[in-house]
Amino acid sequence: MRGDTLMPLTMVPVGVQVRLVDIRSGQKLSHRLAELGLTPGIEITVVQDAGGPILVAVRDSRLALGRGMAHKLIVTPIHQETSPSKQSL
């Protein structure tokens, strides 16, 4: 996944860390998600996706989001900078 790729949260594989870019919903749902800590710019990690609700890690919490709700969260992957590999002597 490229860092400039936008996709719904439902398309993110387990273990991948993403950044919330947009919430494509009405005002009421957007407000409820903001109360849960889901605001644009926040980092989210998909913890479990077994076909039903998606379990995500947000800040220091875990949230279970229904698939319909998760599909309205537009995210982009976060590329983790890796340290250069150590060369053997």
What does this structure look like?
It is a single chain. The protein has one domain: SH3 type barrels (Roll). The chain contains 2 helices and 6 strands, in the order E-E-H-E-E-E-H-E. A 6-stranded antiparallel sheet has the order 1-6-2-3-4-5. The longest helix is centred in the middle third of the chain and has 9 residues. The protein is globular, with a radius of gyration of 15 Å. The termini are far apart. The C terminus is likely disordered.
Task: Kindly summarize this structure in a few lines.
With 89 residues, this protein is of the alpha+beta class.
Q: Layout of helices and strands, plus pairs?
A:
Layout: E1 7-8, E2 17-23, H1 27-35, E3 43-49, E4 54-58, E5 61-65, H2 67-71, E6 73-77
Antiparallel strand pairs: 1-6, 2-3, 2-6, 3-4, 4-5
